[in-house]
Each structure stands twice: as structure tokens, then as C-alpha cells.
Design brief:
This protein has 151 residues and is of the alpha/beta class. The chain contains 5 helices and 5 strands; from the N terminus they run βαβαββααβα. Helix 1 links the parallel strand 1 and strand 2. The longest helix has 17 residues. It is globular, with a radius of gyration of 14 Å.
Length: 151
């Protein structure tokens, strides 16, 4: 497995909750050199297993923190937990924030772990993204490509 990993988290059948999957698919299509791109549902233990021995990991997920829809949040969480405002927004009982803290306790965090959370607008059943989140996906695709030294 590549030492650099991007994980798009979400549910494509819950509106904006699918944005992590959309970002992952767009990054995969770019065929970034040395980068493995995965799609995950967001279940915590699967995330810990997925980032396994990767050196650099970027996780992209939808959040609902009260910010304007489409707002992009970026957190480096190796040395600090995910802010509380963002830790309760998972649809899983054991989600991303819990996965980070479990991996921290087990000494299984990658050297670099960046979380991009994009503020969603609509999480109801259905496919497709709201216009605000769709715009954020385009911005985030470019930002992650640059962060990985690809552009």
C-alpha cells in the first residue's frame, strides 16, 4: 500500500453526506502519483484499519457544525483531538472522532492525519449534492492535490 492515503467518507444516498465519496472519486480520476484513494462509510474501526501503516492520511467527510453550507474546515489531529464541535456529527456510534482517539491510544495514528470537514446543507435521503457543497468539492479537490504536492 502507498504511504499516502486519501479516504473519502460518506453515504451517497444521504445528500451532502456523500461529499467525501465525490471528492475521493475525483481524486482517484486524477491518478495522483503515489496516492491511494479509498471510499469508506465512516465506521471507526474500519478507518483505523484502513490507515494502518500509511505515513500521510487525509480524510474528507461532511460535517454539521452550524457554519455556512460549503464551508471547508481543516484539522491536523495527530497532536490534538478533533474539536468537540465536530466530533458528534457522525451518523455512526463509533465514528471518525472516536477512531482518531482509539488509534491515538493504540499508537496507530499515521505520522500526518488531516481531516477536511465540509459543512453540509441537506442530509436527507436522496442522491446528489447541494450547490454549495458541490462548489466546495471542486475547491477541495484542488486544495488536496496541492497539499499532496501534485500541482
Amino acid at each position: 500500500m502507498s504511504k499516502t492515503l486519501v479516504i473519502g467518507v460518506g453515504n451517497a444516498f444521504r445528500g451532502d453526506d456523500g461529499l467525501g465519496l465525490f471528492v475521493a472519486r475525483q481524486l482517484r480520476a486524477l491518478a495522483l502519483n503515489g496516492v491511494t484513494v479509498l471510499e469508506q462509510s465512516g465506521e471507526g474501526t474500519a478507518l483505523v484499519e484502513a490507515w494502518g501503516d500509511a505515513h500521510q492520511v487525509i480524510v474528507v467527510d461532511a460535517v454539521s457544525s452550524g457554519s455556512a453550507p460549503g464551508t471547508i474546515h481543516r484539522f491536523e489531529v495527530v497532536d490534538q483531538p478533533l474539536p468537540t464541535l465536530f466530533s458528534g456529527s457522525s451518523t455512526h456510534a463509533f465514528g471518525l472522532a472516536e477512531a482518531i482517539e482509539l488509534a491515538r491510544r493504540l499508537d496507530r495514528l499515521p505520522d500526518q492525519l488531516v481531516i477536511y470537514g465540509v459543512e453540509g446543507k441537506a442530509f436527507e435521503l436522496g442522491t446528489g449534492l447541494s450547490p454549495e457543497v458541490e462548489n466546495a468539492v471542486k475547491i477541495l479537490r484542488e486544495r488536496i492535490s496541492r497539499e499532496l504536492g501534485q500541482k
